[in-house]
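Internal tracking record. Fields below are filled automatically when a chain is submitted to the structure queue. Please do not edit lines marked as system-generated. If the sequence contains nonstandard residues, flag them in the REMARKS field before resubmitting.
Queue: standard
Priority: normal
Entity type: single polypeptide chain
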Amino acid sequence: MRYVEAVVDGERVRVVDPELFHSAPSADPARGLGLYCRVDLAPGDHWWAHDHADRRFVKRVIPWPEYLQLPDEERREAERLCYLDGGTRSLVICAEPFCRVNHSGREANSEADAHGNSVVTRPIPTGTEITQFYGYETIYSIVWKFPWIREVLSPSELNNEAFLFANAAEHPVVLEFLRRL
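SYSTEM-GENERATED OUTPUT FOLLOWS
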């Protein structure tokens, strides 16, 4: 079966069957493993569902207070492996092989929709690495991944928790930075 059903925000979403995905070395050796699909993907195809309870897509959710209690080394590892969901204020570890998706700026071939699902934006032939645009990330996540972005943010922004949990795409300077990647 090519598609399965997931429920996101109470709505049924048709998603490409997770069994059709696998990880393999990225074309860019600096990126390690990447995410691939065994079938062609078309614009509009959902390939990841934003449902924290669906173990086909999410391995673990770490609430923000629990994250703050982790030793520094575990925090850094969580920051590397997870994305920060600003709506739930939690770190989300995606299930294999979805945790292998690499991110990109202008070259990304998928992006998050309004509900946080990952959606194909242009044809992805079998054997082509799937890449996700960073726009769904929180500003906090972008600061973790690209520490030099701190230089374009004000001290008041960097000390404002509400600002840091906001979607990166909502901040023009951060969005422009991401589009140049």
